[in-house]
Amino acid sequence: MFHLRTCAAKLRPLTASQTVKTFSQNRPAAARTLGQIRCFTAPVAAEPFLSGTSSNYVEEMYYAWLENPKSVHKSWDIFFRNTNAGALPGTAYQSPLPLSPGSLSAVAQAQPLVDAQPNVDKLVEDHLAVQSLIRAYQVRGHHIAKLDPLGISCVNFDDAPVTVSSNVGFYGLDESDLDKVFHLPTTTFIGGQESALPLREIIRRLEMAYCRHIGVEFMFINDLEQCQWIRQKFETPGVMQFTSEEKRTLLARLVRSTRFEDFLQRKWSSEKRFGLEGCEVLIPALKTIIDKSSENGVDYVIMGMPHRGRLNVLANVIRKELEQIFCQFDSKLEAADEGSGDVKYHLGMYHRRINRVTDRNITLSLVANPSHLEAADPVVMGKTKAEQFYCGDTEGKKVMSILLHGDAAFAGQGIVYETFHLSDLPSYTTHGTVHVVVNNQIGFTTDPRMARSSPYPTDVARVVNAPIFHVNSDDPEAVMYVCKVAAEWRSTFHKDVVVDLVCYRRNGHNEMDEPMFTQPLMYKQIRKQKPVLQKYAELLVSQGVVNQPEYEEEISKYDKICEEAFTRSKDEKILHIKHWLDSPWPGFFTLDGQPRSMTCPSTGLTEDILAHIGNVASSVPVENFTIHGGEDATDLWRCWATSVDFSPAWGRPRGGGQGLSRILKTRGELVKNRTVDWALAEYMAFGSLLKEGIHIRLSGQDVERGTFSHRHHVLHDQNVDKKTCIPMNHLWPNQAPYTVCNSSLSEYGVLGFELGFAMASPNALVLWEAQFGDFHNTAQCIIDQFICPGQAKWVRQNGIVLLLPHGMEGMGPEHSSARPERFLQMCNDDPDVLPNLEEANFDINQLYDCNWVVVNCSTPGNFFHVLRRQILLPFRKPLIIFTPKSLLRHPEARTSFDEMLSGTHFQRVIPEDGLAAQNPENVKRLLFCTGKVYYDLTRERKARGMAEQVAITRIEQLSPFPFDLLLREVQKYPNAELGWCQEEHKNQGYYDYVKPRLRTTINRAKPVWYAGRDPAAAPATGNKKTHLTELQRLLDTAFDLDAFKNFS
Ligand SMILES: Cc1ncc(C[n+]2csc(CCOP(=O)(O)OP(=O)(O)O)c2C)c(N)n1
Ligand SMILES: [Mg+2]
Questions:
Q1: Atom 22 (ligand 1): residue with closest C-alpha?
Q2: Whole-angstrom Cα distance, residue 437 to residue 470?
Q3: Residues forming a β-bridge with 896
Q4: What are 292's strand-pairing partners?
Q5: DSSP category for residue 250
Q6: Is it the case that residue 656 has pLDDT exceeding 70?
Q7: pLDDT at 822 over 90
Q8: How far apart are CA 495 and CA 51, in angstroms?
Q9: Which of 186, 686, 719, 879 could form a disulfide with 801 if both were Cys (CB 3.0 to 4.6 A apart)?
């Protein structure tokens, strides 16, 4: 049963500890020190009027006085000067003696007030009480604001019920004080031009500001200026006034919002649309935020939202053609051949138009999203960041994001918190998001008391100091006002802000649901609720702002627009998802949306380019910079800059020898020997793409140095704090920028963010690296819902790269497996059908058709090629790379420049090239493998002297499966039995993916034997010895030519 409960008004003074905390948070740092506080509080501690909360009041006065003595009342000015001059406790007030002849006049001015009040203590106490009262309204006014249109709010603040106006006694005041005039502190704006007001009026104005239809939560904000800004916006008398024009616009917007849902209900009464009824005010609210932001210079708004009201937002905010929306309801329309598509309330949209209120161009994009509530939040942020980045909008003045939330999802989903924590990080901030919560006080069938432990669904926003404006959605003008303030806040402070639209859901969760099953009392109340449009229209008619015929005319005008669009929608023959693209890439495809070619150029580079990048990668390309293990790298830089050849002194470690300078020296030596290791290969790929104008962004936990300390893309001066150098940004005169950023400790949030970043442009290589590959599963939703099926659902390509450190190295069940089996299981290629291998550009066509590319490179050179191929391809696909750990430093895991020169390519398969390949007829076993186990296999083969009997072929690109090259390999060794060797357990890794495809390749002519670990629940053993035993066992099987005899 729904718990009906009137909003018990509960305001009481804060306890001393609460006030101290809040107060000390709110002071600007510059004007105060701990020392000042101590030196003040000590002498006055014994003042008779000081106790509990009053000491905080005095403290506040003191700080105000320190900043500006004129900002406090004269009596306080004298008191503080006396105190600071050493007046004894108890004397500072009673004897406000002049400190100097010059201050006599000040005392004289203060005198009349003191004279008029025979009891100075009482005067001070009353002022303190009033101050507390004002503060209580500011802190807790929202507790008693009338926020719930249904009047059934079940928010419980756990306070003793004390209403302010009827309990002034709680503050030490009484009825007789109500008509006394009190000076207003600088922390309130209720006075307008007045500096003093009668207590009755003070209370009235505070109730107007904080206890009507708007509840403002802001006193937790740590910045005094920001608090003052908000106080001014809500306390200044007369702030909430609207012109007739504004009211008419608001009414017209409400008409559209309401009648759109009515229209859908009339035409398709049994279709799910997740209607907005009960929160129709959302449409004018969003439009107000957009108008105001446009007025402040924003010309691109990127939005993310859940199901509720999405069609309405598409129609009336983004302005998607109505016929396009209506034809989505036509179950007879065939889908164009573009992908599997998605339901109508998930599709995205991109639209550029003129904002009629500001007459400025505005682009609106609604990001497509899955059912998974809130999952699109970080994606929207990432896309916003990218759009800001590409248009040089470093402060978020032109591009902004708006995120919409449901109350249950906002409180329940952890990704909300993860996304909030990105909001102020330099490489992730979008300079403020406006969050709008459709708080209909229910989530599907669950009411808030069962859905969250915090009073409001918005409390999560408090962690980032975002102000929260709760507003009763049945008061459209109050809603417009908070939306204006929210947009102004964002453009003033460039920080997040939350608008909590407290509303209701008129129908069930969707149009087919019966809400009375579960919320009978709430829905009895809802049935009585007059729709907000009707209420507001009546109000405006009563005010004479519109008359009834005008109102009715507005309604029939919009109904006609809907009817006409409905008629047009019947002309549509086919449903195109591409009309719902949220991120077009103009110029990248042909006008029909096709790739410009179906080939990929060589991914190799010239020797000069390789050498140049290698040299920068092993240097410190700025002067006066001391790296770890080196005193001053200037010499290194000069040496490199003036000479193509390395002098013997190049990169010699100084002052330590084992540190970064040594790593750079080793790199330098590799370059000198025309060789790369993993880190250098990555450098070569990135550096060359930067030269070609491709922006590169590498993000993830500790990526700047690299989890395994191999990368070192950001150098830190050992003597100067925050002095860093990113050599990658010093490669070429007009290179594209390189962004490398350590992220917050979030996978879900950060991967979502990078996916969004990669959506914005095809001309960027965006990489997310997991600390260890197994951690990707905390971002599983982004992988399953966006990366894997994104193109199929939303015809939107995405070239994001996932770097997932993977490998069984005896480190235990965690940190070993990036779970290749999961990625492979989600590949869309058919294991049982051999594609046409004769097709021209077979490899590129395969890539074009796949949903993502999965690779496990065994050489740095191949890693280099696959990274470059990602950009040189004429289309974009997500790329999953299982990256090594021990191979980062493995002496054999090196690639010569020769394999990276112009004309070379990524090798999907690396065939055996040793003795076995020279006499293939003699080969008894052809072992296929992928990744690092190759090195274990070759070592074992060598130890056993079996180089002629066993051939080892590496599959570098697992998906799409290289049927063509593997067929060649199998045909080359006619007498060999086939085996698959992996270090992962049998039910994991690649086996289940590779085996059926290999069998298809050979038309099931031979078995494919397995050499590897047994099936297991955990990815790896926690015992080092067991690990080694298992490894040896799998190697034994791999080279025991009789191992499968009994199975044949
Ligand atoms: C991550 C996730 N879990 C569960 C669901 C199923 N679901 C769909 S809507 C809904 C209720 C959402 O409530 P709320 O966020 O308040 O939005 P409202 O529908 O009330 O607008 C739930 C649980 C989902 N879509 N996503
Ligand atoms: Mg809800």
A1: 444
A2: 9
A3: 675
A4: none
A5: H
A6: no
A7: yes
A8: 37
A9: 879
